[in-house]
Design brief:
The protein has 386 residues and is an alpha/beta fold. The chain is built from seven helices and 14 strands. 16% of the residues lie in helices and 20% in strands. A hairpin with a 5-residue loop joins strand 10 and strand 11. The chain is flat, with a radius of gyration of 31 Å. It binds guanosine-5'-triphosphate and magnesium ion (MG).
Length: 386
């Protein structure tokens, strides 16, 4: 029995539908002599399609059901009847899924945006019925063509979490705690190492509704690049992050030295990927509420030359400063598309309102009143008269 809770890599077998064969048939009807060919075409085979879904975050269902076969097309029939079209098999996959051909190793599709879909096996075309082969010299053709062959291939799906920022640190540094205080995500938090075993994404929402997605991944330890601990298998979940956030336990819990932690982390990352190591990074000194942290922070700056953002997930100090720094790098879009400035208005000039009625002078600050009208749609079904 397979029993796994998080799957970020899986090999599947996909097969599209075979096209239906064309038919050979002749029209037979009372009082009609030499009715002629009337064999219809076969139906097209179904495609296998991977479609991005925001509602799933692992490849688990494909792990349990790795055979993805679309429906075959139906054969054509007499009376020029077309065969049934094979149904497409549409499989939801999480955002961030890379699809490789397992045999050639080539990238087939990279599913990164909501609603995106990719045909990974195209259905065979339907065959032609004998109705197509009629000509002046052959008025009773018996030939038809078979349906197109299905496409079959083995594909490897690899999930790489999509987030703007990725948290990186030793076990117990407080990565999950940081995610939980900044977003509504609820990762498991505990005082033993490797609490987090599944990557998780939370969203930081700013007062102007700008959003930054942040990924929490399992902690890494010295030698991870060589496979120690959970290894670096999880680092691929940071590959799509714009910013790496190094979370350092400044309290030095378990007699750790924060400055050594930082150097080791940096080395592990550059052993894994030079490119990843050169991404923009923020260094966060966590657990600043602990007594020893101030002293450790001073030594950290001296040893590494880096001045981290001092925070505490416990007392919540420094969190706003961290969010501001993060925002400067990620530069997320706000959701306000219409500003008062665009309409030549300054909110300072808006007169006070009493709450009972809105003075006409204040109404002009309601910018939504000035938005363009949506296009009119006609409703033929309601019997519009033109
Ligand atoms: N005093 C103090 N303790 C903290 C702070 N942040 C986290 N902790 C504690 O540190 C321990 C580890 O926190 P987690 O958030 O689970 O750490 P993690 O980095 O996600 O750990 P792994 O998932 O094992 O890699 C927990 O017992 C937290 O309560 C903090 O700012 N101050
Ligand atoms: Mg954790």
């Amino acid at each position: 029995m397979k029993a796994k809770s998080f799957i970020d890599q899986v090999v599947v077998q996909v097969r599209s539908g075979r096209g239906g064969d064309g038919a050979t048939s002749f029209r037979r009807e009372a009082l009609v002599m030499f009715g002629g060919p009337d064999g219809g075409d076969g139906g097209r085979g179904g495609d296998v399609v991977f479609k991005a879904s925001e509602h799933i975050n692992s490849l688990l269902s494909l792990y349990y059901d790795p055979k993805c076969y679309a429906q075959d097309g139906g054969p054509g029939q007499g009376q020029k009847m077309y065969g049934r079209r094979g149904r497409d098999l549409v499989i939801p996959v999480p955002l961030g899924t890379e699809v490789y051909d397992e045999d050639t190793g080539l990238l087939v599709a990279d599913i990164t945006s909501p609603g995106q879909s990719a045909i990974v096996a195209k259905g065979g075309a339907g065959g032609f019925g004998n109705v197509h082969f009629k000509s002046s010299v052959n008025q009773a053709p018996t030939e038809h063509t078979p349906g197109g062959e299905p496409e079959e291939r083995r594909l490897r799906l690899e999930l790489k979490t999509i987030a703007d920022a990725g948290l990186l640190g030793f076990p117990n540094a407080g990565k999950s705690s940081l995610l939980s205080v900044l977003s509504s995500a609820t990762p498991k938090i505990a005082s033993y190492p490797f609490t987090t075993i599944n990557p998780m994404v939370g969203t930081i929402v700013y007062p102007d509704y700008a959003r930054i997605a942040m990924a929490d991944v399992p902690g890494i330890i010295e030698g991870a690049a060589r496979g120690v601990g959970l290894g670096l298998a999880f680092l691929k979940h940071l590959e799509r992050s714009k910013v790496l956030v190094y979370v350092i336990d400044m309290a030095g819990t378990d007699s750790r030295e924060p400055w050594t932690d930082y150097e080791v982390l940096k080395k592990e990352i550059s052993d894994y990927s030079i490119e990843l190591a050169s991404r923009p990074a923020l260094v966060v000194a966590n657990k600043m509420d602990a007594e020893v942290s101030r002293e450790n922070l001073a030594r950290f700056v001296k040893e590494t030359g880096v001045r981290p953002i001092a925070i505490s997930c416990e007392t919540r100090e420094g969190l706003d400063a961290f969010k501001d720094e993060l925002r400067k790098i990620v530069d997320p879009k706000t959701r306000f598309h219409h500003t008062h400035a665009e309409h030549g208005l300054d909110l300072k000039d808006m007169p006070d309102t009493t709450g009972d009625e809105i003075p006409a002078e204040a109404m002009k600050f309601a910018t939504f009143l000035k938005l363009g009208k949506p296009k009119k749609k006609s409703h033929p079904s309601r019997g519009n008269i033109h």
